[in-house]
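Researcher: Next sequence.
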Amino acid sequence: MSTAKKLDFIESNVSGNEPNPNVRPFGLRDKFGYLFGDFGNDFFFLLVAIFLMVFYTDVFHIHPATVGVLFTVARLWDAFADVAWGRFIDTRKVTPQGKFKPWILRMSFPLVIVGVLMFVKIPGMSDGFYLAWAFVTYIVWGTLYSTVNIPYGSMASVITDDPVERTSLSGWRTMGGQAAGLIIGVGGPMLIFVDNKIDPNRMLMAAIIFGVLALACYIACYKLSTERVVAPERPKQKGSSKATMKGLVKNKPLIWILIASLTFMVCTMLIQSVNTFLFKDYFGNAKALSLVNLVTSGTVFVLMPFLSPLVKRFGKKELAAFGMLLAGVVYLLLFFLKDISAIQFVGIVTIGMLGNAIFNLVIWAFVTDVIDYHEFLTGLREDATVYSIYSMARKVGQAVAGGLGGVLIGVVGYNSALDMQTQETLNGIHALGTLLPAVIFLIIFLMIVFFYPLNKKRTLQLAADLAEKRVNKNEM
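Model: Next structure:
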């Protein structure tokens, strides 16, 4: 069969998966539904990423290095919880509402409740109590986050089987997360900080508000999105787990996107953690966090209309590599510009955020490609398992970033008891917020260029070969 004819099958054949003819076709409603899912996720995820470390250090008075240990332990636990939950989801039967959507709705309520409890400070308790409260609530919250995020991420592959539509979903998902980032990043510092210090009562109020908004978004995701690709029930076979593991080990695109994603998460979480200290202490302007967070989210909305045309013309790999190169160069430049103001810093970092946004917009489309490659290698369609492996890598990245961020803030000499940090500490914070991200972004650029194998041409060929394999299987 010619390549052109193979490609004709892409939109209508999915590894024995059959689109349900009784549901409405894929459209704008699904895009908004999927957007709302990450909108809800990131209301709390970003609240935690941006403010939890400074809440623990300045309100609970936990040492930054200890916070780093907590973040590392929790994220490593979550990484394994992701895989266990992914395997669990893949063994569930499809319900009339779908295979993944019901779990999003069921688990969102306990997730939000525990999320609010993280920011509760009970007056008059001992330091040991606050430390124990932090460990228990944070670890439980992270585990519950897996029970919502794994089915949500896996759902993209059953909303549609079309590669172009999946890329569109990736963009809408990122836009949902950035919309939450826009609200939290811009409004959060204004709401939470009083006289350049975090206020515990305002922090709790913010957690409650964003928790309610998160629940509304999860319900909207459940109501608006439709699972229309249904995999036939497969009898349980002896050794199926072994076949899955062999396929995962041989899946070179998966391995390298895992490594790149893990590294990217380290950089993103590190920037989010350090930025609070960078603007609060180095620039002496905590409210400027609102501006930099506005820029971070705004670049995604600016680039979103150009995503599909750019990917169609250049390819996902090529576009992502350019984004990381741009971000790395800009952050390296900022390292040498030590005497600029907070506003000037934000103006320059905006260019780097464009590169960051490019990678963010296409990353979820990479995941659907590696899921397809797993199917091509093994003949097994295991969306939740493969996605959970990917999510595990991101959690490891979060663990590394959380631990690294806390340890490095402590190493440079940050002391929450001081009204003004020493100049040496301020210089260290500046290096953490500029030089370290520059190095990490440039490493990701090299990974994508030299090691990730699915460029534009090979991705199209994979789709064609997989379409033919599906047709041949159905004809047997």
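Model: The chain has one domain: 23-230+242-475. The longest strand covers residues 18-19.
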